[in-house]
Amino acid sequence: MARSKQQLARLIRGALGEVKADLMVSGGKLINVYSGEILEGVEIAVLDGRICYVGSTAKHTRGEHTEVLDASGCYISPGFIDGHTHIGHYVRPFENLQSFLPHGTTSLVASCDELSSVLGLRGLKLFLDEVEKHPLRVYTLVSMAAPQDPLLCSTAEFTNEEIAAALDDARVLGMGEIVSWLRLTQCDDELLARLELASRRGQIVHGHTAGARDQKLCAVAATGISSCHEPIRFEDALERLRLGYWTMLREGSLRQDLATTLPELLASGVSLQRLILVTDSMTPDDVAEHGHMDHVVRRAVALGLSPLQAIQSVTLNPAVYSGIEQDVGGIAPGRFADLALLDDLDPCHVREVRVAGKRVAGNGVSEFHGEAMALPQDLLCSLRVGLPISHAVFKIAAPRANPKVRVMELVNQTITAQRIVEFNAANGFVEASLYDDILKVAMFDRHGRSPQVAFGFLNGFGAKVGAVGLTTNLDENTLMIVGSDDADMARCANVLLEVGGGMAIVDGGQVVEKLEFPVGGIFSLLPWQEIGTGMRRIQGCLKEMGSSLDKPIFALNFLPFVTLPALRITARGLVNAKERRIVPLFAD
User: Fold this and answer.
1) Distant-in-sequence, close-in-space partners of 220: CB < 8 Å, separation ≥ 6
2) What is the mean pLDDT of the chain?
3) What is the 3-class SS of 235-287, one letter each residue?
4) Whole-number Å distance between alpha carbons of 192 and 214
5) Cα distance between residue 97 and residue 366, in whole Å
6) Is 494 exposed, middle or buried (0-12, 13-18, 19+ CB in 10 A)?
7) Are 361 and 355 contacting, i.e. CB atoms less than 8 angstroms apart?
8) Sheet arrangement for strand 581-583
9) CA distances from residue 215 to 212, 219, 274, 513 in whole angstroms, order as listed
10) Which of these, 357, 458, 511, 550, could form a disulfide with 23 (CB 3.0-4.6 Å)?
């Protein structure tokens, strides 16, 4: 962040004691992420929100109006940074920030995918305005998932001119993860043009290289993509570190990769100076139960990383990678006074949080009481699919009595395989089968490009349910209904459309659970705690209905994610992810 000569002069005079500090911190043990030391007997002075002095005594900076903070008994850490995440689902970004703040998180790098996929450039501008209202610092990336792949997806889109304008916004840090690395290795002209836009401006580009190895991983790195948060095995993480990627390991709501990567990395003895720990998203229910970046630090320490290394991986390392190390990431002169006071290093318990020297959270509660911005009224209940929905909409006519059908088989909560299943369609229609754990999937286009419904079938979900629907799916964010009964599926769809979107479970004609996301179909305006409770209910209900998945709703979230193996579904149809093409439902 640029500073004027007047601001610089005040910091100089503050360090010398000529201008008295706003805040002086004494006592406590300073976690110095630069030198890798824990120091005692160090005092800190803060002026105009930035640190002006760190040394043996700050008495010369103390004036009549200086606040003195006694940190005795605490470790003084730089505020934590989530170096790669998403904050646009379930609750508004402002509420997500409120939930993170008490856990020591004072900065994060977020790709604005959700609002962008629904509203394009307008969504990005709303996001930028929204997060400015909160003290937690958000460094925004322009979404490259709107759409992930124009051949396969149906979302709002950016033009190259809009991308350029967004990158020129001072509030934008760089370019979000390029999910479709297959497009890149095919020298997709649009992606190359966008990489050129970022390169000209010297801005970072996040990567998403799931499944890439050897030549393809080198090809992606050669374009200037400088990070990847997709290693799920030790070998993946090691290869990326050796190729110069800033390697991000996730421990969030959608993926938890530390246990399968970190212990072997530590045993290998490789340098971890380019290791960054991230969440890649944390839902309100998980924040309530586990925390945020403090939870990530605890998990890393439990798996063998030293507390100091873990804190470096959520402070200095992401700050250096993101090019913001002169503002955040450590406790040193010139940096913002973003501090987390910890009762201990293991476990990492956050007692107090300060941003720009001001207390904003304590004892697990946000103390920031500012108001979020007013959102445009036309965003409320704006989800439309362009056709009336009855049970007849969900009928799938069979081409013959025993058709062979492509089925998405859940390998785990995020990965699918393709199965070819022969159905009995003696009545002329292809139906779901609870006995065989095969549910029908229907995707609707909210952008008016595909008037017909796209159908698929899902195996392995486990829940014996009439219908479950959601409008928060990666990265389509449109109406998706999964179920076994056409009437329940129609009821579920209409229930969600009536309230503007959300999640719902319908069984036997009755609404069993419902969570409303009226803003664009992607988030609620309720407090984060209420939505967290609702999400726990929905996940628990699906497990009670028979799903063995840890977070069943997330398995449905990922069904439209066209860059993960193997068979996916969007409003345009079934997608063969590896071959990057739409494939027919019927295989014969």
Assistant:
1) 181, 184, 185, 207, 209, 212
2) 97
3) HHHHHHHHCCCEEEEEECCCCECHHHHHHHHHHHCCCCCCEEEECCCCCHHHH
4) 21
5) 9
6) middle
7) no
8) 567-570, 573-576, 581-583
9) 8, 6, 21, 48
10) 357
Instruction: Confirm whether pTM is higher than 0.90.
Output: yes
List, in sequence order, every beta strand (DSSP E) within 318-460. 339-344, 349-355, 358-362, 365-366, 404-410, 416-422, 438-443, 454-459
Q: Measured between alpha carbons, how far is 84 from 136 in angstroms, rounded to an integer?
A: 15
Retrieve residue 188's tokens. 């997709």
At residue 513, φ and ψ (nearest 5 deg) are: -145, 150
**Contact in structure between 101 and 366 (CB atoms under 8 Å):** yes
* 8 A C-beta contact, residue 268 and residue 240: no
With CA atoms as reference, report the closest residue to 246 among 198, 278, 293.
278
- How far apart, in Å, are the Cα atoms of 323 and each of 119, 141, 329? 29, 13, 10
CB 154 within 8 A of CB 572: yes
- Token pair 């610089």 in the structure block, residue: 8
Tokens of 4: 């004027």
Length of the chain equals: 588
Helices (H), 53-92: none
Token pair of 190, please? 């649009």
Parallel/antiparallel/unpaired status of strands 90-91 and 523-524: parallel
- pLDDT tens digits, one per residue of 204-260: 999 999 999 999 999 999 999 999 999 999 999 999 999 999 999 999 999 999 999
Tokens read off for 102: 């008490």
Closest CA to 523 of 127, 143, 88: 88
What pLDDT score does 588 carry? 79
Q: How confident is the model at residue 452 (pLDDT cuts 50, 70, 90)?
A: confident
Round to whole Å and give the CA distance between 375 and 518: 12
Question: In whole angstroms, what is the distance from residue 159 CA to residue 155 CA?
Answer: 13
Question: Tokens 């250096």 label which residue?
Answer: 320
Distances from the Cα of 376 to the Cα of 91, 173, 228, angstroms = 16, 25, 35
Residue with tokens 């990158």: 167
The DSSP secondary structure of 166-229, one letter per residue, reads HHTSTTEEEEEEE--HHHHHTT-HHHHHHHHHHHHTT-EEEE--TT--HHHHHHHHHTT--EE-
The residues pairing with 483 across neighbouring beta strands, listed in sequence order, are 440, 467
Task: For tokens 């997806």, name the residue.
Answer: 153
Structure tokens at 494: 């209409």
Q: How far is CA 334 from CA 50, 325, 363, in A?
A: 6, 10, 28
